[in-house]
Amino acid sequence: MCKGLSSLPSSCLEKAKDLRVKLSHLAETHHKHRVQDGKTLQDLETLLNSKSGLEAFRGFLRSEFSEENLEFWLACEDYRFSPSNLQKIKASSMFSQFINADAQQEVNLDGETRDALLSAIDSPCADTFMKAQQRIYSLMAKDSFPRFLRSHHCMEAIKAF
């Protein structure tokens, strides 16, 4: 404990700790419920479905040098809605860009998901990347999205709603 604080009565220190906890909770609650024009940024899905929200999130991820998850998720969305005659070409491109060990934008997938993708490379179908996309979405929702909500990039997204 620093010398200055040790001279304070313990009741004062306890009150300060309690106040800090309450202020942290209040700030977090306020941050989660910022509203502009009756709209609120509640979840990752809402963000990804907004062009300006998506761009703000991309800018945030770029500032953290971690935009590969978003780029992979978007590539999966594009792949899902591609005609079947383009799926093999797109799948191959996605493997080289995101899945292979030497990929420029390799995403963090567990071994089981990666192995399932590698076994499907020769005959991809519409849902080839579904499980991997869900894993990356979950990773973004649990990791990068909460950090985004605490960033200045979030205000850009809220203003754009």
TrEMBL record:
Pfam families (alphabetical): RGS
Xref: PROSITE patterns: RGS
Domain RGS residue range list: 43-151
InterPro entries: RGS (IPR016137), RGS_sf (IPR036305), RGS_subdomain_2 (IPR044926)
Protein name per Swiss-Prot or TrEMBL: Regulator of G-protein signaling 5-like
Organism: Seriola lalandi dorsalis
